[in-house]
Amino acid sequence: MAALIILAAAAAAIGGAGCAGSSGTEAAPAAAPSWPRYTAERELLRPEKHEEWTFVGASLGLSYSEGAESSHPLFHNVLVQPEAFRAYRSTGKFPVGTTFVLAVHEAREAVTIQRRGKVEGDLVALEAAVKDPERFPDGWAYFDFGPRGQATSARAEPSEDCHRCHLEHGADDNVFVQFYPILRRAREAASGQIETSQGAGAAALPVTGDR
Length: 211
Ligand code: HEC
Known about the structure:
This protein is an alpha+beta fold.
């Protein structure tokens, strides 16, 4: 409870600066309007404004649970707070409080003019990953917002269900950077391998997610 109050106070203190859209070139933000918030029972509140976050990549039909039905592939959209994205692009590190959202949509066919291919249908699940080593012993915690992603809060999933796979297979700090073109580019920008401006070469990005 004490932590909640401190967090709320910190958020209120910098709230104005965050809303004004400061350039974010200073050190990673300690708190911001889109930073994770929790209930008194330590459940993560559903990140309501994630539609406004930075889109980093998508996948279709990616399944990592054995026996999953593949005749109905799902779209995965991955987003992260703009503040965390900017920090990663300039430092190559995800700041404490970084929150990723994985929005899962059904794939819909036979809509109006389309002859083939699929578009995104309804939201079927909403998951989140939060980096907060002081709060979570694994460093990152993982959340599932229930049927149709509509739960208002979610408790951290057991480590063996989510964390282990991310730790072992995510290319950078538990995150599947190797699958997100925008983060691959950001990582290279942070390490000085490419110019930060949008230039030629985006199409020729090597996939360097082998660590
Ligand atoms: C067997 C491996 C595996 C397990 C277990 C797993 N994930 Fe993931 N996760 C992935 C892969 C691969 C991606 C890449 C993007 C995608 O799914 O489209 C991913 C991406 C994510 C992302 C986007 C940010 C990131 O870290 O790349 C979130 C959020 C997420 N998973 C949440 C969860 C939650 C919650 C659970 C447990 C209920 C879970 N994951 C279990 C493999 C796994």
